[in-house]
Amino acid sequence: MKLNKILTLLLLLGSFVSFGQEPKRSEGAEAIVNAINKNTKGISFITSDTGINSELNEIGTTFFKNKYIILSNKKRRHADVTVNPITNTPNNNLYCVDVKEDGNLSFPLLFSQALDSENDEGSIGFSSDQRTIFFTQENPNNKQLFTLHKATLNEKDAKKWTNITNLNVVPEQYSAETPSVSPDGKKIYIASNIPGGFGGFDIYEATIAEDGTIGKLVNLGPNVNTADDEKYPYMSSDNKYLYFSSKGHLNLGGYDVFRSAYVDNSFLTAMNLGTDLNSRRDDVAFVMTSPSKGYISTDKKQSGNFDILKFEIKKQENLHFSYTVVEEVTKTPLPNATVIVTDEFGTKLAETQSDNNGKIKLALEPLTFYNVEVMKDGYETKKTNIATGDTDKNIALTQKKAVVTEDAIVIENIYFDFNKSTIKKESELSLNKIVEVLKNNTTMSITINAHTDNKGSETYNQTLSESRAKATYQYLLKKGIPATQLTYKGFGESELLEKCDKCSAKQDQTNRRVEFKIVK
């Protein structure tokens, strides 16, 4: 990780962090781990060996006709081992391996003699019909760079892969690496260090025309790319999530795997997949074989040689997260607020109401941003985003001002404890709007009219309305409003707005009201 990225994290976390070899975890490093794990609460990645790893290099790419294609620098049969003169390590070649029912890998065979070279081979991608391959090879003129090529499948040809073409997608002095094709075959994603990006290697996308030509490279933007390196893009089968490896973002060290949701032709903030999957070494080449299984390549031994691991995703059942709807200034909990939750893609997932303590409980998926809309009478509608890591978060609403008409001060309904005249805390906030109007208009006088529903006897309702009108009057006095500006009266059930024999809860709520009529 570059120095400026580390300094940024230090400023955010307020303590020292070190990413040396097996360091003693400091408070800063612990804070990074905690921040990462908040967003992965409820999900775990169980990793295990695939049975194919050796002391040499094995790194995954993608699938071709139910075979997993890997890169390895194992000795090729009947061929001399070639060595990269800069790294002094054997060059990687492409192999196809069998995938067993348990996900283990076996029987590596050279993938293609036509694509095999004396130089280093890199990652590959296939068109959706798997008849076009996009592959990278070491630039023979500069062994630190890779070039992107394509070839077409011809089963009748002895070499199988024909029409090998260098696509020249980047200038000769730059590198094109780790290509991946979208599930629909319409886009290719590559990593490149061409100028104009955010720094190091960035991930770009380009359209793939019907004739296989590649369009202009477009940078995926700051929610994916950073001042550090990003490589190994992989788009999920439903085209909703981009997985990639990055040395930037909120990172444990080396390359970590991240996920960014693809919404309305743009990428949302990337989220680290967590410490079950990522380490302080390089973790790359994430690919899924089903909604809960896949492969990742990791250099956990820090030997420069990768191992291919399989993973299985486990999710905790019935996991709920709590949030509290509050008034933004006093932080008073607000009951009966309507909360609508949609996912990143606009799909409505839940609609609920805050309880008497302003609490809501939501069942949320890990690694996901949610859009939340909160509505309550007398308050501005609040639209915000939450993630699964934002547990016990307050969602603050802004009060609307009272509306003053010719004959009344209009606010939201005033609530009392059941069958009592005790004003609820949330309604004290509402009455403060009346206080504000009267203090700004000292010559204004009002009468407080309290009404009930038609449940219970007329005598009981009359008494209850009078006590509630008086309680409201006394609250305003306590807040400094002179008695000369106030009168009050209880009307019981004599002036119902909803005249019904068997009223619904909503009709009863309409009838139970306190009105503030202007006398002068």
TrEMBL record:
Membrane-traversing stretches: none
CDD domains: OmpA_C-like
Entry GO CC: cell outer membrane
Main subcellular location: membrane
Keywords associated with the record: Cell outer membrane, Membrane, Signal
Domain annotation OmpA-like: ranges: 403-520
Subcellular location(s) per record: Cell outer membrane
Pfam families: CarboxypepD_reg (PF13620), OmpA (PF00691), PD40 (PF07676)
Signal peptide segment: 1-20
Protein name per the record: WD40 repeat protein
